[in-house]
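Bit of a strange request maybe. I'm writing a small parser for structure token strings and I need a real example to test against, not something I typed by hand. Could someone generate the tokens for this chain?
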Amino acid sequence: MKLLDSDIKTREILGWKGIHLLNYQFSACSMKTRIYLNLKNIPFKSHQINLSAGENFSPWFQGINPRSLVPVLIHDGDVHIESNDILQYLEGCFKNNPLIPADKQTQVSELLSFEDDLHIDIRNITFRFMVPKLLNKGKKAKPKSNDKATLHGEVDPLDDANRKFWQEYEEFGIKDEDVKESLIKMNNALKNIDSILNENDYILGSNLSVIDIAWFIYVTRIQHANYPVQDRHPNVHEWYIGLYKNKKFKDEVQIPSIMKLIIYLYALVLKIKGRGITNFLPK
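Reply from user aminoacidic:
Good idea to test on real output. This should exercise your parser:
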């Protein structure tokens, strides 16, 4: 999605030349975009926006992306938001090393839309089983301006959806019924991919594509949340291990040792309480 000139309040970026990516090291959508850029050998300048410190709610950043979300791509002063739209835009600009097959553009667009529809589900799973609520509490909803975000001159419904999620998370956390539904959706999607990978090297066939990048990030996240990928979806596991051996994939999904320790201890506590992810998985 390309923003209109009237959407952009932080005017200095309109003069930026080349490709700039406003992103956060540990943001799943940022990881996806960086992997794509690296695989395509597209030179870019990275600007880190620290979500944990609420930098995405600063007037400077909200003047670039009213949704307060990363990543944001700035290409010769033009502003593009939403990671899947960014990938498809870049593919049209840079033809080398194609990651969206010319004869499968419609299919890729549909599959990226399906992956995007699961974004709240991956958020439910990781927030419920990966990080204690205490560490997320208050980081998202409170700093954001009360002004409604607008895009292309219209009120942005996604902004309201994000506000609602964080408000409910502050009050209730991730509810049992929500995470169960999300696990059913994720399990069904992975079963389908596992079936495809039984006969193919990659999700679209014999060649790597943006769909593999997108699902590599999701599988990384759910494994951190202790989803048993190897047991339930062995072909997905083998596919993932193969991609992880590629430095351009591996380097973008690393997390600090302290975070790994927190994730491990939190999973142990949940398991002892009988509230771990395996207690909520569909049979």
